[in-house]
Amino acid sequence: MKVLVTDGISELGVEKLQSFPNIEVIVRPELTPDELLEEIADVDALLLRSQSKITEKVLQAAVQLKVIGRAGVGVDNIDVTAATRRGIVVLNAPDGNTISAAEHTFAMLISLSRHIPQADASIRSGRWDRKKFIGVELAGKTLAVLGMGRIGSEVAKRALAFQMRVIGYDPFLTQERAKVLGVEAKPLEEAIAEADFITVHTPLTKETHHLLNEAAFYRMKRGVRIVNCARGGIIDEQALLRAIEEGIVAGAALDVFEREPLDAHHPLLSRSDVVLTPHLGASTVEAQVNVAIDVAEEVGRVLSGLPFRNAVNLPSLTAEQNRELSPYLELAEKIGLFATQLVPEAPQSIEITYSGGLAQLDVSFLTRTLLKGLLAYHYQDEVNYVNAPIVAEQLHIQVRDVREPKSKVFQNLISLQLYFSGAQIKVAGTLYNGFGPRIVEVDGYAVDAPVEGNMVFTRHVDQPGMIGKMGTLLGDVGINIAGMQVGRRESGGEAIMILSVDKVVPDSVIQQIGSVSGVRVARAIQL
């Protein structure tokens, strides 16, 4: 087996690969795109960091490729969809840089509170200005951690050791898990309003893009300090600058930016109350060694036919499993993805029911796939098809599988029930021959909606004119309705509607739809 290492990774990762029998390792850092096309033709595995771009064109040239290993978390430089179509396993190393990122966050937090970079620059310029750099203590202050995944949880541990009060915000942070972590779980608006310091640790998604925007800054107490070592774009940089100028934000420490590298004329560079580093969160010797060894171990195990953990796309199925389950894998993932966008808070438990012929099969892969769809919407690359059940367990979400050999209407049906704070949501789907995966039930309302693209979901009073009002709001911003499904039990009662639309619906339009008289719930859904 031949493994090509295209980006500079730790030598210990290369040595780990070489420890597997029958594996030849070729190290070719800094290949040009054309050179990569030539080199990859006869390799069985590819190991890289973020420099190499693995496009569909590259994958077409990689006729023997079985596995791609990314020494890090994000896989934005890999066309995972194209790799999956070709049966190529894509791996990452989601755990290796956790401590490094958490420690860098805390270094930024302390640097911000004690003006360390500014004081260093001052003394190097020949000044001795102690009064200018009076800081604030962390002890007794409130830290809001936005995103309580692996890194956010590690930051919270360190803050507690510094005797800070820690508030955690995360869509899937239950009160039970918050208690275990020693933090207070609060909604976003309350968390940022009470905080003296705010640090963000969410992935960058449609939901988290500009999570801290102008409206959010106006909810904060004056003198708050902001840290971002997660992803550029979570903070609206222009809104942050205005908040600093107005005295709402006393200072910020940023390791990531909306555009990297940072433009030489960016206004952040002129601010003495902002600490900047060039995306160093994972830049420690230990982190680079850890991610290299982790992903090398995984690549070696794939090539050796051994079990592996960190697959970003679905692990290989046996021929029989593939024949029986593959038609339902997309359905299961889309049900999870659809349902999680309806849930207003973290579910305490979920129940997955397999009805009809599915009840006779080994559905563990379907359960993993559904959980991945449910959780990855919020946690992105931290969740994959292999570790999804473990992540659910860490989040204290109880998962129960139920089998019903007979289905009242459909030959095969997957139903997902989510329970949270005394309420519940149910989504069910099936496959139609020739039409693919369909959502056929939401909370007892019968519908028939394709699970793809952009949607608008509403729960509203069934009265004349509702559909027209929503259509007008969408039409006013140039959004075309491609399909519509309405479910109701009785005329004049409550109804639901699923609109398939041609574009992503802006939050402002969803708010307008939600404010229409009689509309109780309005959600934008992306599948």
Question: What does the model show?
Answer:
This protein has 527 residues and is α/β, with parallel strands linked by helices. It is 34% helix and 24% strand. It is built from 17 helices and 22 strands. The chain has helices at residues 11-18, 33-39, 56-61, 80-85, 98-114, 116-124, 150-161, 175-181, 188-194, 214-219, 237-245, 285-303, 319-340, 364-379, 388-394, 466-476, 507-514; strands at 2-5, 24-27, 45-48, 67-70, 89-91, 142-146, 165-169, 184-185, 197-200, 224-228, 249-254, 274-276, 349-356, 398-404, 412-420, 423-432, 436-442, 445-450, 454-461, 481-488, 494-501, 519-526. The strands form 4 sheets. The protein has a 7-stranded parallel beta sheet, with helices on both faces. Strand 9 (197-200), helix 10 and strand 10 (224-228) form a beta-alpha-beta unit. Helix 1 (11-18) packs parallel to helix 12 (285-303), helix 13 packs parallel to helix 14 (364-379) and helix 14 (364-379) packs across helix 15 (388-394). The chain starts with a strand and ends with a strand.
